């Protein structure tokens, strides 16, 4: 983002409004501020309501703070007296980064590199997950046998429908003084494929993050080989934390590992970062990969398309679960979704734990490609 002094004078109020929201603990990413000013430019604007609609669409205040957002908008643009907002003092005490001077903000932004680093302008916060009755115990028990199988290089003895195990047969002949009742057979074992979950924890996914993390804990506990990563403006592997059997302890440790809760999102760069680390990209090879995200990629989506193409080539099955698909009116109409739809095996409803568990437990069953299904619905 440009420095305030290098912006046109007409843009300064919009940049100032974004800074006001950050001072009151709203999670506003740099690209959201840029999108806000671009939206205002596109709209004209013809009225203050256009500016308000642009702010709502691009700065995306959480539903539970919508009233506070409206109050700040009127106070900033209309000059209304500053409202008394319940809980405002508590919000202020939870901010861990005062973000320093404007010069420090600009320097931090220039040092950002995709999803690898997190700028001081991000909303860095902890998260507390409470235990509830969500029915994930059944999912955990069924998962190990429900994942798609693959043939292992390890073999096991069998009495039928196998190939000759020459080494064991010769050993049996020697031990039986040249006599063998029947030849020794072997066949390759089948083992469940790896499950890789990539979870979007940006501000637009705030309402679903807790459920997704509970689902991820159940997956790690139930599958022999499951890996979980979170991404927003950073990429964080939380598999080791989720291996703790107690869910409350596991999610508390995961919450401590992740610093970019409820901030911006860079889906394409985050996935490219994942693929650029050989140890991480190996997790995707031959795995069932499920991305939990609304996939609202702002600006150029070329990085997202590149990352999805590479993931599709590595994975056994590549799926995108978006909460937006819970709406019957949803269609993959954005430029980003249209670009990646041919690369997806599945584009499914990710709006609830029930829909996600049902889908993951069905991964072993063949299904039409995502593009085929959504073309029928269009």
TrEMBL record:
Region named Disordered: 80-114
Parts forming coiled coils: none
Origin superkingdom: Bacteria
InterPro entries found in the cross-reference section: UCP010256, Uncharacterised_CoxE, vWFA_dom_sf
Pfam families cross-referenced by the UniProt entry: VWA_CoxE
Compositional bias of kind Basic and acidic residues: 93-114
The protein, known as: VWA domain-containing protein
């Amino acid at each position: 983002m440009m420095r305030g002094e290098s912006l046109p004078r007409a843009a300064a109020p919009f940049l100032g409004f974004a800074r006001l929201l950050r001072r009151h603990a709203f999670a506003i990413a740099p690209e959201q501020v840029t999108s806000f000013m671009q939206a205002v430019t596109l709209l004209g604007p013809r009225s203050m309501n256009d500016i308000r609609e642009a702010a709502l669409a691009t700065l995306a205040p959480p539903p539970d703070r919508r009233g506070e957002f409206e109050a700040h908008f009127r106070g900033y643009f209309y000059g209304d007296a500053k409202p008394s907002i319940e809980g405002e003092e508590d919000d202020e005490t939870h901010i861990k980064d005062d973000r320093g001077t404007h010069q420090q903000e600009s320097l931090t932004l220039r040092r950002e590199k995709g999803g690898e680093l997190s700028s001081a302008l991000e909303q860095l916060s902890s998260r507390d997950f409470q235990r509830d009755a969500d029915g994930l115990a059944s999912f955990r028990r069924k998962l190990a046998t429900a994942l798609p199988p693959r043939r292992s290089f390890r073999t096991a003895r069998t009495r039928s429908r196998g190939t000759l195990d020459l080494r064991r047969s010769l050993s049996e002949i020697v031990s039986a003084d040249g006599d063998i009742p029947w030849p020794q057979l072997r066949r390759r074992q089948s083992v469940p494929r790896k499950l890789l979950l990539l979870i979007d924890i940006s501000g637009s996914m705030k309402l679903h993050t807790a459920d997704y993390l509970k689902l991820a804990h159940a997956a790690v506990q139930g599958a022999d080989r499951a890996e979980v990563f979170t991404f927003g403006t950073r990429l964080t592997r939380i598999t080791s934390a989720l291996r703790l059997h107690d869910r409350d302890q596991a999610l508390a440790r995961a919450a401590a590992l992740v610093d970019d809760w409820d901030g911006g999102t860079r889906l394409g760069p985050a996935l490219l970062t994942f693929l650029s680390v050989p140890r991480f990209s190996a997790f995707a090879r031959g795995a069932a990969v499920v991305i939990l995200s609304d996939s609202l990629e702002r600006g150029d989506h070329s990085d997202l398309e590149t990352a999805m193409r590479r993931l599709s080539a590595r994975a056994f099955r590549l799926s995108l679960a978006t909460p937006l698909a819970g709406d019957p009116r949803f269609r993959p109409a954005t430029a980003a979704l249209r670009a990646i739809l041919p690369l997806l095996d599945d584009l499914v409803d990710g709006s609830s734990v029930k829909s996600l568990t049902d889908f993951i437990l069905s991964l072993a069953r063949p299904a039409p490609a995502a593009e085929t299904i959504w073309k029928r619905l269009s």
